[in-house]
Amino acid sequence: MAEGIHRIPLPLPMDALKAVNIYVVAGDDGLTLIDGGWAIPVARELLDKSLRSIGYGFGDIKRFLVTHVHRDHYTLATVLGQEYGAEVALGIGEQPALELLHRAGHDGLDESPFLAVLRTAGAAEIADLWEAGHDGELPNPGDWAFPDLWIEGDRQFDVGRRTLDAVHTPGHTPGHYVYADQAEGVLFAGDHVLPTITPSIGFTVPPAEQPLGQFMASLARVRELPDLRILPAHGPVAPSSYERVDELLAHHEERLTQCLTSLRERGSVTSLVVARDLGWTRHERAMDELDVFSQGMAAMETKAHLELLVARGQATEEGHPDGVVFTAVD
């Protein structure tokens, strides 16, 4: 990517996303990795092989700067950190999610907390299908160890001659961070600014307050930085953070307009009803054409948009046995 910066795409065991990009930043005292990958054997083997191809090994890793807590970014970092003594840093906004994972199977938390979120979105049938497809296996505590360093606020990390600006960008998750190397002109963007897809919003537990509002505010924060080359966690490198941020903001404003139109046409309805009025993926597919997991994601993301309409005074929300019901304000 640049002198001393390497990108290593690691495989993911899912259809929607084929790989997660791990970035290796070389310093005088070792390596800093932006994200770690998913703790599966094939990803670990490829990371080992790739590091060796550029003259390093796992023992050279000094630190993992993890953009957020999702398993394709965090779990291999924690495993290798424990084995090789590398520091793992994570935004403190992810602490509630890790605590919830460690309580799984205890304190009555035998059911995935995402199921409750789906039911509030009016998607009880989808929740039942998610539950039926769950194999009952509990999270491996070794994959979800607490980090060595909680990152709070904005701060800087020195990596050899480089300075990385850690910028808190909540939205995709509450504790998401991006890392800007302004001297090099690059942004390690995690899942906050993706070049070809829009990151999921509302797919986090415990549920965050106004995740879409937070995401759009975080995009505005990134827009205040210099125009940087995007090194994303998924997809190809993109030339301009300004261009992509503007596209993402415009996309969500359009989505908000579509949600409001649906409410005005349908009256008082749940998020699931509105989601079925929208097109999904870049191909504008109908919701019923999506797989069950993606249908659930669509319902939760639509709920995030409707909640922002409420915050803007354009809609109201009210609890109902079938889920939260939203109504457009005249």
Automatic annotation (TrEMBL):
Q: Which Gene3D superfamilies match?
A: Ribonuclease Z/Hydroxyacylglutathione hydrolase-like
Q: Which residues form a coiled coil?
A: none
Which Pfam families does the record cross-reference, listed alphabetically? Lactamase_B
The Metallo-beta-lactamase domain covers 19-234
Protein's name according to its UniProt entry? Beta-lactamase
**Which species expresses this protein natively?**
Nocardioides simplex (Arthrobacter simplex)
